[in-house]
Amino acid sequence: MDYPNFAFDITRRDPASRARLGTLKTPHGTINTPNFIFCGTKAAIKNLSPKQMREAQSDIILGNTYHLMIQPGAELIEKMGGLHEFTQWDGPMMTDSGGYQIFAMGHGGVADEIKGRNRRDDKSLISITEEGAAFKNYRNGERLLLTAEKSIDIQRKLGADLIYQFDECTAYHVPREYTEGSMHRSHRWGDRSLAEFERGHDGKQALYGIVQGGVYEDLRTESCAWTRDKPFFGTAIGGCLGGSTEEFYEITGWCMPQIHPDRPVHLLGIGAIGDIFACVKMGIDTFDCVSPTRIARHGWALAKGVPGNRLNMRNAQFRENRSPLDEHSPLAASREFSKGYIHHLFKAEEMLGLQILAQHNVSVMNQLMREVRAAIATGTLDTLEKEWIVD
Amino acid sequence: MDYPNFAFDITRRDPASRARLGTLKTPHGTINTPNFIFCGTKAAIKNLSPKQMREAQSDIILGNTYHLMIQPGAELIEKMGGLHEFTQWDGPMMTDSGGYQIFAMGHGGVADEIKGRNRRDDKSLISITEEGAAFKNYRNGERLLLTAEKSIDIQRKLGADLIYQFDECTAYHVPREYTEGSMHRSHRWGDRSLAEFERGHDGKQALYGIVQGGVYEDLRTESCAWTRDKPFFGTAIGGCLGGSTEEFYEITGWCMPQIHPDRPVHLLGIGAIGDIFACVKMGIDTFDCVSPTRIARHGWALAKGVPGNRLNMRNAQFRENRSPLDEHSPLAASREFSKGYIHHLFKAEEMLGLQILAQHNVSVMNQLMREVRAAIATGTLDTLEKEWIVD
Known about the structure:
2 copies of one chain form a homodimer. By secondary structure, chain A is an alpha/beta fold.
């Protein structure tokens, strides 16, 4: 299978690690990697317009198949001209396969952006069969079935540049037998995803395969080989990445030398700044995470070189603070509003505060990725990491 | 009293009505009148940054003394460099005296932006004496006293360009005797406001007097004469404007020929599009109202030439509508997002929807005022009114 309108070129490799610089070309533009993909779950970045995302120097955003198939529906978005036209984001875009959310909700785990609507005792997953996953529509209780073919069909209607095979994301507590069986089923779903993708392939989209295998090294090895040998454009590291940071790095470290070396690699759902440094050094090219805009809604401002890389703007220490979030930021909002004003906006429950912090946090993540790329170019990634991460 | 850094020049009068074009000069810039003043009640326009207000071509905003004295407090805002520096709005700004909200809440009436926090059975007004108004802090129950001197002192600390005398806004149901006594007390408060203003006058602010007198023509006449003879920079039509639109227009119509003819005239709290046409023709120069951003939060988009001048974007009729709110708008958000997308944002409770409609509504009000000014210049106000207001 050819991807004539896509390309991934590795332009430089870090001699001290597996980190690499690349360019990822899509029909909606070329981005430099490593890069961060912002989550526009329900066809919108929380509190930010495409214009504000551009002001914060964002390159690429992501939509969620699970949420969009439920509301407003893939057919509607197709009628409206696709996700780019619908949202007015004209840059590169990615959609996931829908699998992650179905299973995360089904297991009663973190329910991402719909947290609060779906309680742990209200599991929505009905069953997983060879055919696909049956689940309840969280809005109206209707029974829905998502299959490999359906996931690809929905993602085609949405029209993002980079799309995903359908897969099951297994939980940490399941036995090895379950993980193994699920992985093989995800591989069969991957084959069906490829077949369905190829049937409608018009060159406008490129498909990523997903490495499964949970916490088991031999299964990860098998899944890496499977993705490597299939005509995917990119590779994602998916599934359960263990119960601790150490295990997550260990599992990712197993996979990276075994996947296809020339394809772009996406790490699903990871976005903590410390994890980004660790994973860039393992060779990850793109990341996505809801956290920059989510923590903004709780009053947290991302910051370089402070413990935890964030400041709680609700804290009374900022009440009379006349300094801005970052006087050197390229983003006007980060340079111009004082911390005291942002503190006031949160205390007074003024929605402008959410918007200012969301745009600031997006800008900080983009600044981080620009600095990471510059540090790979100059071989100074460890030095940069020490500037960002402090105790 | 001189206002050396302020000026109001009437540049053209409509031969067919009392409508007039003017320029209102302040230390933070000159605005053309008639114009609309947007309410940034708690030191922020709901959902919009100063940059977004400028994109929507806004000229002037207003802050509320009552809300700001409670949160974050006038002393804090003064320490932070004043309201302009605090909010990063660098254009002309107005603050009210605090009287309106104390009395509106005291009477258990509309409580503006804090609606929902303050129920009708939770009246916050404790007493009105010659000294001032005692009321409860809605955040912590603390007893506060607002006097003419305190109101001017707070407004000086806030630092808006155009500020107000302290006054009582009487309710519709009170007897004539109460209205008359209250009006005379407001006049005495006005004298005290002028004395306090003059004591600290540094040329950076200009003071408006307020016409009271409720629904009684002879009282209005007396109050017009009182404001006219005092060294205020501007005049506001305040107090109870009756129980119907007809009565409101009648009362305003009594006042306009009797107030100082050369001073700018502000109509407090009025902002419906139909009322703006009627009142511009009576000679009003500036308006303020929370409605453009408030109705945005409920999904209403302001529109020219549609019944009621607004569209409910939550309505299912917009679900598949690919047309923008206004393809000819100077505001990108109004031209670029489809009605169907905005409908989706409201159905999906995406906060971006609030932001888009708030900016759109602000832009529409500014467009209205630009068109009103152009129509006064060309003597076509009636024609313009027919374009905006339809059954």
